[in-house]
Amino acid sequence: MKLRCIGLLTVLLLTACDSGIESTPPAKAELSPIPVETVTIVPTQTKGTLALYGLLEPMSSVSINVDFSAPIQAVLVEEGERVNVGQPLLRFDMAKVELKQRQLRHTLEQAESQFAKAERDLRRMQELKLSNSISQQQLDNAQAEFDSTRSSVSALESELALLHRDLARREIHSPVEGMVSHRNVDPNESTVAYTPLFELEVDASMKVSVFIGEKMLSLVQLGNTAIVKTVTGASKAKVISIASNSDITTGNYEVKLLLDNSLREYRAGMGAEVILDTTPLEGQLLLPESALVVDRGEHVVFLIKDSFAIRQPVKLKYGLNEKLHIASGLKSNDVVAIAGAEFLVDGSLVEVKVKHE
After folding, report:
1. 111 exposure class (CB count in 10 Å sphere: 0-12, 13-18, 19+)
2. How far, in Å, CA of 325 to CA of 43, rounded?
3. What confidence tens digit (pLDDT) does each residue in 190-236 have?
4. Fewer beta carbons within 10 angstroms: which end of the chain, N or C?
5. Beta-bridge partners for 173
6. What is the enclosing helix (H) or strand (E) of 60?
7. Does the predicted TM-score (pTM) go above 0.70?
């Protein structure tokens, strides 16, 4: 019985020994590097363009009114019509003024006749007083009549002068070259003093207003140039005004550009695409868009150092012409992954296939 046990134990041991000699541990798997392309971050001068949209407006406008009331005989222009300097816009019905002028002239002739008689009487009374032939009261009465008739003549002459001025303005003429943007009167109506009759757009120059966010405002200065495109053509423009305060609703800043319109290609209200040149900036750190990865809600890049990827959060100023302007997180001469960055994690082994300077 014991021998059988020993024999069985010997068999088991031999079996175990044979099994151990034949088995080998599994080989350890080697990590394959991720192929990437890199770029070296260096300070760069930047100049690009901003694509914006705005509406054309006249550079200035003129309101036409008069300081008197008169009936209108004819309106000589329509809204949207172009006018030249001196072109008649409106004609008044001056029939009543002409009638009043004739009446005043007749009254003035009578007053001048009375004045002439009063003047002769005063001289005669003065001579008689020297010889004590009349009383002082009689002389005073002659003087009063002279003064009264002279005042009447002067008042009538002033009134006639005003009527003459009104008759000279029987037509209202355009003081500028431009376009009639508003017409507020019709024939057979009467004007009201100082009420606008016409609005004229002075359109030899136009302006276009665009709005720019605060982050981009540092890229724009007075004098920056732009190309303004409309359905009628394209022209160069220049920045003439930058708002000091932002729009209360949008938070953006209004920028106005001056546009030559001497050929009258453009009209107020036209939509315009504005390609605005930005101000050159020195020493900017620029990042290709392909290098940026969004990881766990953060903007990150992967620095490449000694064949390993290092996760690096970054903050951006803005994007311009497919380049991202870095606010913080990178420094000069940092090497970052571009092609292949989306496959990296912190600590990834990489193989740099192409280096971009």
Report:
1. buried
2. 11
3. 888 888 999 998 888 889 999 998 888 888 888 899 999 999 989 99
4. N
5. 88
6. strand 49-64
7. no
Q: What is the DSSP letter of 262?
A: T
Q: Which two tokens stand for residue 179?
A: 């376009």
Helix (H) or strand (E) run with residue 302 in it: strand 298-305
Q: Which of 313, 295, 309 is nearest to 347 (CA)?
A: 309
Q: What is the pLDDT of residues 110-161, one digit of tens each?
A: 999 999 999 999 999 998 989 888 899 998 999 999 999 999 999 999 888 8
Amino acid (one-letter) located at 324? L
158-165 contact pairs (CB < 8 A, 24+) = 159/104, 160/101, 160/104, 160/105, 160/108, 163/97, 163/100, 163/101, 163/104, 164/101
Please say whether the beta carbons of 197 and 76 come within 8 A.
no
pLDDT digits (tens, 9 = 90+) for 177-192: 888 999 999 988 988 8
Neighbours of 212 (CB within 10 A): 20
- pLDDT the model gives residue 117: 93
Q: 143 — alpha (psi -120 to 50), left (phi > 0) or beta?
A: alpha
Residue whose pair of structure tokens reads 């069985």 in the numeric block: 8
CA distance 299 to 292: 7
